[in-house]
Design goal:
By secondary structure, this protein is mainly alpha-helical. The chain folds into two domains: 67 residues; 53 residues, no CATH class. The protein contains seven helices and no strands.
Length: 134
């Protein structure tokens, strides 16, 4: 994962807390355990949770994790499309077409290839040439 520019007048404990918040279900211990580890009260963590700077850093960590997962998600969809299980293949196709339909409403994506390019570029539509589509 790339290093994030997160030095927004927060201390190391606050940054660790934001990172801890960004991985729900994967944290080790409870919020009270973390408070003890960081040397602050549980109430302090509750207050930090509302701090816009911590919320922003949490979002940045989540976005970075999501960016890392996009290629895997595309590969998983491709495998599902060729599944011998018709229900799995149909569900993958429906998912892609539903998402494609949403992006087509933007008026910028006109083919499945462009949709894959859109996904591979982390949700940023980029200009592609006719060669890229073929």
């Amino acid at each position: 994962m790339e290093k994030l520019p997160i030095k927004r007048e927060l201390n190391a404990e606050q940054i660790l807390f934001a990172k801890w918040l960004s991985v729900p279900g994967q944290q080790k211990g409870t919020q009270k355990d973390l408070a003890i580890e960081l040397g602050v009260s549980d109430q302090t963590l509750c207050n930090w949770k509302k701090d816009p700077r911590i919320i922003e850093i949490k979002r940045e960590y989540i976005d970075a994790m999501g960016d890392d997962l996009v290629p895997d998600a595309i590969e998983a969809l491709k495998k599902q499309l060729t599944s011998k299980n018709e229900m799995v293949a149909n569900k993958a196709a429906k998912d892609i077409l539903d998402r494609w339909g949403q992006t087509r409403q933007l008026g910028r994506i006109t083919s499945i290839k462009e949709f894959y390019v859109y996904l591979e570029n982390k949700g940023k539509v980029i200009d592609i040439t006719a060669e890229d589509v073929e």
